[in-house]
Write a structure and sequence with these properties.
Blueprint (H helix, E strand, L loop, with lengths): L1 H11 L2 H17 L1
Length: about 30
Amino acid sequence: VRKELEANAIEFYPQREFDEDMEDKIENDKIR
C-alpha cells in the first residue's frame, strides 16, 4: 500500500517537492 501511495504522490506533486518531502520524513525518522 505504501508504494502505491508514494507512486500517487509523485503524480500529484512535482518531483522536486516530493523529494524534499521524502528528505524531511527521513530527518524526522532520525530524530524519533
